[in-house]
């Protein structure tokens, strides 16, 4: 795993004056000059990053955490469920960037334990899922749990800042492909059928399965998930064993038949 886990952290925000230019929503970075854009710099959003990979958190912090440029102030970080609840409670950010798969119960458990803060009428904490997974069950699970949006980790820094501001204002934000999952799920009153074979797999094994089925090489999967190639090989072996399949070609057919790709 390229980035290890670590303890929770909070940070006092920098004392800058906000972004120098107008963005797609009041506050985010833009290319404009001063003067006419001065009204936009007053808007800031306080954010907590929750992800179990330190390297990924560091990258997000570098991409969006320059408050004077983006209007986003990162006030804390966490690597698992318990840390997340502690940091969110202590800092009361406007937006939490939440990974779906976390030690201690996952993003859904963080949402469950933060329900009272989400329901606060005066200072609501809003959640934006930021995950490598684009699986329908992951998207639907966190939205049912109370998240205001879901974007994948392929999002650009500019678009992520835009999404943060929109969620802070109460909007719902989704990567384009994922919006259909949510509409389909809430249009139906029927519970999705349980796939006993799929339920045998851990969340990480499901992620590896989907990427293998999409034709990713082991090195590409390792880079995407911030894990080692050896760990990818171990997950693939476990998936093949649990599903009683012989090779990645059978695995791809299996995943395609279940519309997991």
From TrEMBL:
Q: Which UniProt keywords are listed?
A: DNA-binding, Phosphoprotein, Transcription, Transcription regulation
Residue span of region Disordered: 1-35
Pfam families from the entry?
GerE, Response_reg
Q: Which domain of life is it from?
A: Bacteria
Give yes or no: UniProt keyword Phosphoprotein.
yes
Tell me if Iron-sulfur is a UniProt keyword of this record.
no
Q: Where is the Response regulatory domain?
A: 46-168
Modification 4-aspartylphosphate occurs at: 99
Provide the HTH luxR-type domain boundaries. Answer: 194-259
- PANTHER family associated with the record: NITRATE_NITRITE RESPONSE REGULATOR PROTEIN NARP, TWO-COMPONENT RESPONSE REGULATOR
Q: What name is this protein filed under?
A: Response regulator transcription factor
Q: What organism is recorded for this protein?
A: Streptomyces niphimycinicus
Name the lineage.
Bacteria, Bacillati, Actinomycetota, Actinomycetes, Kitasatosporales
């Amino acid at each position: 795993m390229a980035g290890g886990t670590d303890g929770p952290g909070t940070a006092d925000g920098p004392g800058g004056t906000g972004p120098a230019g107008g963005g797609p929503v009041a506050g985010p970075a833009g290319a404009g000059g001063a003067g006419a854009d001065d009204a936009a710099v007053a808007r800031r959003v306080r954010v907590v990053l929750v992800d179990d990979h330190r390297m990924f958190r560091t990258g997000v912090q570098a991409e969006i955490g320059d408050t004077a440029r983006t209007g986003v102030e990162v006030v804390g970080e966490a690597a698992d469920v318990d840390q997340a609840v502690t940091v969110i409670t202590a800092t009361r950010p406007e937006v939490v960037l939440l990974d779906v798969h976390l030690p201690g119960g996952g993003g859904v458990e963080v949402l469950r334990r933060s329900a009272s803060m989400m329901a606060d009428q005066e200072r609501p904490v809003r959640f934006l899922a930021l995950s490598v997974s684009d699986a329908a069950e992951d998207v639907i699970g966190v939205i049912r749990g109370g998240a205001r949006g879901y974007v994948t980790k392929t999002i650009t820094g500019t678009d992520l800042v835009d999404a943060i501001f929109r969620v802070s204002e109460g909007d719902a934000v989704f990567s384009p492909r994922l919006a259909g999952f949510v509409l389909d799920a809430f249009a139906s009153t029927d519970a999705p059928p349980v796939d006993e074979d799929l339920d045998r797999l851990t969340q990480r094994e499901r992620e590896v399965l989907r990427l293998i089925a999409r034709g990713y090489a082991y090195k590409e999967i390792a880079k995407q998930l911030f894990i080692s190639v050896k760990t990818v090989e171990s997950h693939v072996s476990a998936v093949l064993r649990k599903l009683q399949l012989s090779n990645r070609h059978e695995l791809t057919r299996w995943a395609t038949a279940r519309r997991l790709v």
